[in-house]
């Protein structure tokens, strides 16, 4: 979404923070899939000892977005990590007004013997100007059989042109973990977008290539 056994380190890069709907990003936004539509978010990340692939499909019904997903560490796989979550947009973002969404999720790791952690996240999207949007997250990460801690993140998306944006974000956890990444998002025809991101934390650096298909997204 998930830190710091080998399985949790892999989950950091290969899969969502908690079960977020932000694709290959660390920080979620307040948007959800349009009701009656589905989407697919997937990404391939490369870093020493934790390169892998993640797929996260989601569908929205009755105002709730339901997501499931799986990630696999291709470098040294201890088995897949599985994810499930729900997300609801509390307030839609307007041209000049912020949006707000709540997401709940959990993950299960085959190598760790079962349930790994539960997460809750409140995401706000704030339009700073027509081409610049601020994303702010505040959440809670609750590992199995351990005390939980706060999580938070800040992200910026600058829509430089009709078909591409610059992305930058920072993510922190109450256990002392810090991460940051940046890159660009390219919007292609037929509701397809691709992300190219580079980031790092105290364990090293990574490069991520994301592929997203969102037919219900009119943006």
Plain-language structure description:
With 219 residues, the chain is mainly beta. The protein has a single domain, classed as Porin. It has one helix at 6-14, and strands spanning 38-46, 52-61, 64-73, 81-91, 99-109, 114-129, 132-143, 149-161, 164-173, 178-188, 192-201, 204-213. It has a twelve-stranded antiparallel beta barrel. The longest helix is centred in the first third of the chain and has 9 residues, at 6-14. Residues 1-11 and 15-21 have low confidence and may be disordered.
Radius of gyration: 16 Å
- Structural class, from secondary structure content? mainly beta
Q: Overall 3D geometry? A: globular
Number of domains: 1
CATH superfamily: monomeric porin ompg
Report how far apart the termini are. 24 Å
